[in-house]
Specification:
DNA_methylase_N6_adenine_CS, globular, SAM-dependent_MTases_sf, methyltransferase, 16S rRNA (Guanine(966)-N(2))-methyltransferase RsmD
């Protein structure tokens, strides 16, 4: 995987093969960050990266100037790899080893962007729990967005607070936002 833009543009990061991950493709990541770039100033936001795996998305935010990034993953090897990589690049990434659902039930800190990249074979009810917990626990800032990466075979448009989705090859990003009050 490589960092697309920012301070570390072009840097390649090679994760150990034994990690249980499926990193977001460079093409999909570049398209996603083009969308985010049009919505936010990277140095003014906070990011929560759920099911962070290799840390691919967190590194991209850090390279673009985001100072407040939290990566959550249940796998110790993933957390260790993110810590080592972030330390090597001097990136401001805080890691938390936790089951994502347990973390979402307990945390009280809202973020501007919450990015979730759960396993593509997750049951639909597990995908549904992510926005449910995020909105139930007020974990998005007022102008924030929850982005869930999933397979094009998984449909999330029926879930509350769904805004829109974008497809890139076999990847989809579904965007969820706070409903505007009338």
């Amino acid at each position: 995987m490589r960092i697309i833009s920012g301070t570390y543009k072009g840097r390649r990061i090679t994760a150990p093969k034994k990690l249980p991950v499926r990193p977001t493709t460079d093409m999909a990541k570049e398209a996603l960050f083009n969308i985010i770039n049009n919505l936010y100033y990277f140095d003014e936001i906070s990011v929560l990266d759920l099911f962070s795996g290799t840390g691919n998305i967190s590194y991209e935010f850090a390279s673009r100037g985001t100072k407040q990034i939290t990566s959550v993953d249940a796998d110790y090897g993933c957390i260790r790899f993110i810590n080592e990589t972030a330390e090597g690049f001097k990136m401001p990434i805080q890691t938390i080893k936790s089951n994502v659902f347990t973390f979402l039930e307990k945390t009280t800190t809202p973020s501007t962007i919450i990015f979730a990249d759960p396993p593509y074979d997750f049951p639909l009810e597990d995908f549904s729990k992510i926005p449910e917990l995020v909105f139930q626990n007020n974990l998005l800032e007022e102008e924030g967005v929850l982005i869930i990466e999933h397979s094009k075979h998984t449909k999330l448009s029926h879930l509350p607070n769904f805004s829109y989705s974008k497809s890139y090859g076999g990847n989809m990003f579904s965007f969820f936002e706070l409903a505007e009050e009338e």
